[in-house]
Amino acid sequence: MNITTRDVNEVKIVAVEGELDLNASQEADKQLTQLREDGVKKMLIDLAKLEFISSAGLRVLLATAQEIKAAGGDLRVCNLNATVKEVFDISGFSTLLMCFDNEAKAMSGF
Amino acid sequence: MAEEQQKILVVDDERLNINVLVELLKPNYKMMAAKNGEQALKAVRVANPPDLILLDIMMPEMDGYEVCRQLKADEATRDIPVIFITAMGDTSDETKGLEVGAVDYITKPISPPIVQARVKTHLALKRNMTELQKAYKIIEAQKDRMENELNVAHEIQMSMVPQTFPPFPDRNEFSIHAALHPSREVGGDFYDFFFIDENRLCVCIGDVSGKGVPAALFMAVTRTLIKARAIDDISTASILTRVNDELSRDNKAYMFVTIWFAILDVRTGTLLYTNAGHNPPYIKQKNGDSKRMDNLHGPVIGAQPGLAYKEDSTHLAPQDILLMYTDGVTEARNREKEFFTEDQLVALLSSREYESMEELVQSTVAEVKRFEDGAEQFDDITVLAVQFSGQPGAAETQMLEMTLKNQLSELKQFKETFNAFAENNNFSKPVRREMNVVFDELLGNIINYAYTDELEHTIEVRVEFSGDRLTVTIEDDGIPFNPLEKDTPDTQLPLEERKIGGLGIHLVRNLMDKVSYQRRITKNRLTLVKNINK
Could you tell me which CATH number the domain at B7-133 has? Predict the structure, then answer.
């Protein structure tokens, strides 16, 4: 699992590559927490290169989203593949988190 | 209430004689009189015929003998006792009188006390006879009612077992035949077979304790429960465990049932089965050997709730025959009170080649009947035979078996192995990804939470892929844990209120088509099925 970031305007785009499963979630959590503590208030998580996500990964996303929201910020997700979207749908995360088909749609209104 | 007074008919051509008898008897009886044979015969053919007839012999036109003969020839008057009262006193006269059917013969001049005594005796006899006949009619009616009830039980029983053969004419992966010969009183045997999906056939045979309508009803309930539970469960142990819980819950009559239940995959020949107290079936192999399926997975069903039944699986090779039966076969007795026994059954099974399952079943029943040789059949005789054809071109099974240690690094390793397997078998990307999620959830859960000691444990995973079905079995020896008992998380709650518990298994249940759990003594076993449509 690999995380890379770039900035567009005030938004931190966080690309998660690989698999966000049990093994990877600890590392992902560490990096996302670091970003929050660095003061990121607007975060877009780009899952274009994410193979799949399991409940461990969902947990990390949820925690990050809750913290950012509590701090007055906003977290969005985009580019979910079919399987990731399926997992989001089953778990109800599709309604919990703001999900967008692509980066452009996600960015407008941020 | 005083008994109705009995009626006596006096027949004599002499008025004087009639009067003597009427005077003598009228204090105690209702009296009627007739002057000749013709009148007498008219007098008896009434709604209320006399209970006794005092008959003179010497009469013009029709004598007493003739009157008596006619009375006895008519069913309506045959039972009225006749006493001859006559002056003809020879032994030959008396003999003749008794021969034509009179019950007594009194010579004139009469002795009043004698006449009274004999009349009283014969009337009492007649009264008893009438009572007996009435009682007999009641018994007849009861017997008819009982026959009726037996018929009802019989109807229930026969309507519960499939009787059309061949039942699946368009399926050539197997052939099946069955017969149930009920005993006079319904003995509670049943059998059933049905598909739970395209390729899996359930076969079932059982015997309810008790007889008659209660047994038939219990059998109907049992059969219905099995069918209902089998629809969404792929483990025979799990199905019978649930059926047992339900049957033993309201079982006030303390009935129980022995069941042998199996699920046969008709493409691969895999046979998953559970024996709950029933007679062990036999598998006859192509080379003629018969193997006894000894394993017992639990006691009879319905006796005690909360039992966990087990299961085993085996393989039917092409041409293998599975023969199931009830103890009505092995415990059939002949006149010498000897039992038919399993030995004879096995001998019959192995002794020759059978052209069809129908032939095997019918031969078995015929042999049992021949053995019984007219001795009473106390129990239902039931035989069910299935032959697996192993149709060529049946989908091959691809299998992956792996043992992992309870460490996350092993989980990573496993996924890589699985992904290679998926690649080799051309699973689509979504399927591969979904399975990765499933493995992550289940194996991760076991590794993290199943063990309370710090020791190394192993987890066994088996993946079977056949046709378009993927079957996964995960077995661990951790603490007893049935993930299916967790509540489904409420996925509608807003962000702030969401907790994570139960989410993993929720995902698994939605990504797989069937999930079932079974505790096997010291192990947890999860069986999962996913239909992969290409």
Answer: 3.40.50.2300
